[in-house]
Structure formats: structure tokens, C-alpha cells
Amino acid sequence: MNDLDALFDRLCPMHVNLGPTGHLRRVGPAMAKLRPDHRLRGRRFLELFELQRPRTAATMCDLAALAGQPLHLRFRDEPSTALKGVLMPLPGAGGAIVNLSFGISVLEAVRDYDLTSTDFAATDLAIELLYLVEANTAAMDASRKLNQRLDVARVAAQEQAYTDTLTGLKNRRALDHVLARVAGHGRDFALLHLDLDFFKTVNDTLGHAAGDHVLQQAARIMVAETRAEDTVARVGGDEFVLLFNRGLDRATLRVIAQRLIGRLEQPIQFGDRTCRISASIGALRSVDATARDPARMMQEADLALYAAKNAGRGCCRIFPEGAGGAGAPGSPTVVRRSA
């Protein structure tokens, strides 16, 4: 290797040296790295590369006529990396030097050929571009991770805002949201407004820890008596609302209420003490409501609950649509649990 070849290797690592017939006499180190398994020396330039613009060159004379013009070409075999170049004739020695670069294909080239900074000329802006891409990738990755953390935190905050921390049930805010959505869709559903009887006695005699335990056990029972698409919410100290996301007839609603009351009347152990409660339930079917207004529906379920309380507790009253059931027209129908 003479001094001129070493100079070209240092300044133009992607160059090719063409002889008078258009055959490669020598290639720069970076160019050799692109086809490590091929013997490039002696190959005809236009057999190795496809000239895409301009398309007029078919011989070395045609190439020589393009001296100084920007060339757009690509390898004919795979990977068919796109290249840019410029050809300059070698005075006296015959032939020409073609200096090549990757242009906008530099990212693909680095990936395909495992190139490093030593494969580029010191003045090649590709190095700065690669650094910028790397920095941008790192910044985007950091931004994506931050957004993911923010999304998780946002979801957690929303979930916390809609959750009763003691029982894990939905809270009143969540119930209002679900009830408004279900009522707005126009499909049939049912509400049970449930109040724990004798809960204050547990709190007063055994303490708040026992009361919390009873609330948690009651919540588990209610969840067990509903489906995943239904909603169970704690809306007050010992008040709960169960929203059944489907239409129910009175007989089915009566069975559910009786089963809930029966299970809640089972003794609940708290350490060596026994807690006893019951439940009063006010029920409302959406088809029986006087209006599909969430606030009005909750009021009518609440009226049925108070009627159950006044009837002696441990029972359910179903709010009728109009006249019917026991009692005066428009009065709730009482349903007592079997002894």
C-alpha cells in the first residue's frame, strides 16, 4: 500500500478505486467491511452496484462522463444498501476514484454491518447523526417509561378515588358514575339498598376494630352474591348498594334479598367474641322506577329501605311501579325472610 492509498483510506474509508476498464483496483477499509465474504477487487463496478440516478451509465466511459455529479446507487445483492457517491477521474493514472457514503441509510447500515465510528471519515456528519439518534432514543425511552409510570400512578389514583379503603368495594362516587352510565344506556337493572341492622351495637359493645371486621365480612358476602359485571358499593358507614347489571323479576330479586339477609345473620367471629347483625333491604327495579333519573332511583330505593326498617328489620321491601303488591297503591311490597 503506497502513501496515496493510505491517504485515501484515512480520508475516504468508503472509496473505491476504478481502473480504466471500470474494474475495482482497490477499496477502502469501510467498503471492504460491507462485503467481507466477497472478493471485491477485480469486480466490475457496474456489476457490483446498480446505478439508480442517473441511469445512463453502462460503461466506464459513461461513468467518466458523470464526473462530479451526485450518484445514487445500491448494491445489487442483499443487503441492497442504498449509497450516495461522487466520481472523480485520476489524472495521468487512468481510472477514477468513487467516494461513497450512506446518506439517509446510515442507520440501517450501522445495524446491518455492525459499523463503528472508525468506519467513517473523521469529518463525516454521520457520527454526529448517530449520536443524536442515540440521544433521542434514550430520551424517548426515558419519556416512555415516565409516561408509563404516570399512567400507572393515574390509574392507581383513580382507582383509589373510587374505592372504599376498608372493604375494597366501590364507594359512593364510583356508584354514582356507574349508575348514571347504566341508566343512560336504557337497559334494565336492579338496585338493592342494604343497611346492616344492629351494627351500632357491635361498634358500641365490641369496639371499632370489631365493627371494621364485620363490615369486611359483610362486603365479602355481598361480592359472593353478585357477578363480576355487577357493582357493590359502600355508600355510608353501614350502608351498601348492590347494582345488578341486568333486569330481574320480583321473584328473583326476592330470592337474592332473602339469601343476603340469611347469610348476614350468620354469627361472625371476632377473636373470642361473636358478632350478630342482620340486614334491611330496599329494592328497586329500573322498570318500576318513576323515572330513569339516578338520583330519583336512589331516593325510591332509599324509601323502600326505610319501609323495611319500619317493618321490623331483617326484611326487604320492593318498590312497585304502581298499584300492586300488599298495601295501598304505590306502596312497597314487603318480603320477610323465612324463619
UniProtKB/TrEMBL annotation:
Pfam families, per database record: GGDEF
Annotated GGDEF domain residues: 187-321
InterPro entries according to UniProt: DGC-Regulatory_Protein (IPR052163), GGDEF_dom (IPR000160), HNOB_dom_associated_sf (IPR042463), Nucleotide_cyclase (IPR029787), Rev_trsase/Diguanyl_cyclase (IPR043128)
Gene3D superfamilies in alphabetical order: 3.30.70.270, Haem NO binding associated domain
Top-rank taxon: Bacteria
Record protein name field: GGDEF domain-containing protein
